[in-house]
Amino acid sequence: MKLEIKENHFYMNQEPFFWLGDTAWLIFEKLSLTEAKRYLNNRKSLGFTVIQCVLLHTYQNGSSCAGKSPHTMEYWNEVKEVIAYANSLKLVMGILPFWGAMLKNNIITSDNIDCYTAFLNQFFKENENIVWILGGDIRGDTYFKFYDAFGKKLKQANPSRLITFHPFGRTASYQWFNACDWIDFHMFQSGHRRYDQVCMNAWDDKTLQDDVFGEDNYKYVMKNQAIIPFKPCLDGEPSYEGIPQGLHNPLEPYWQAKDVRRYAYWSVLEGACGFTYGNNAVMQFYRKQDKEGSYGVKEEWEEALYMPGAQQMHHLKNLMLYIDFIHGTSRSDIVINPKPFYEHIACFGNSHYVICYTFLGKKFALNLEHYSNLKGYWINPENGKIQFLGDVKTSCCIEFIPPMRKKEENDWVLLLVNENEEFSIM
Question: Do 306 and 350 have their domain in common?
Fold first, then answer.
């Protein structure tokens, strides 16, 4: 079971593969083997295909906050057991060898990285369900030479294993590494801030030379599409469900399932090759007996497994696989009078189908003059239920008025398909 990229798309066993990731940064550090298996079973049942996690995250003085030590083979053998169990579930493990802070804090250094790299290449050489994710909330320009050398050595040891880079908040790996042969696809971190939270005088403020896209995560995809040579990309860390807006202040409103859906549909319908979901409690595997959780966490991790956002992500994956997304592309060009911010209409398709996503559920118009014989369907992204819209006229300006679901959450997916195609709605 090995993930590969062909013609700028993921494939698994010759079949198109949609990266639907879940964020489980501390699975190795905090969970027992039994708990890890329970978590993986849950994520498999919800349709996730990739688990993003870290081998070394907060290790200091030889042990983690959970008391596990990476200096023992007991730790590493348990890591391999978790990876093997994920493989039995056909789950890909997107693994960071170490979190970026360990480089900043001189725990990982130029003096010990070669030894660690050799260990990784040897110890995990038989585990085909691994994708290496370098970085970990860190800027690539500050440590370019280090990560470039690290990526080259990992790729040299196993040329078929995919590698990407998890960057600092509201930046993208294509800013620094696109010309590097070792990076196979890009990640961006759209992050946890609102439009109005550009500068918060916090440690994760960006530098002035970076793009400022706010919540418009689809703009990272747009920028990536224009870079040569082109490599696929996805949002590897959007706003997490159950985390404060802006990340740092628990008195701020918390990001909810509807916000996660918006990030997912906006980026994927712009042409991203997948999407990674995150939950505040799950990513840190918070328990009440922990001394203190991070980022205003409220739920324990096992309770948070069943929060609505996690249960809704598979509707997007199923839709994209259903319409054969590898032959589609962004169709923002057919949106008439596009509007900014939350009124943005994401649009994707080809000559046989069109998919649109509206976050607010307001009226919008499309230019469908180059289509014919279309049938329309409204899809509720909360539960995947479908309403038949009927035959759709095709001309240079066709208006669509979404149904009303509820005032505070009225996002909808519009699916238009050619009636002559062999489509059978999900």
Answer: no
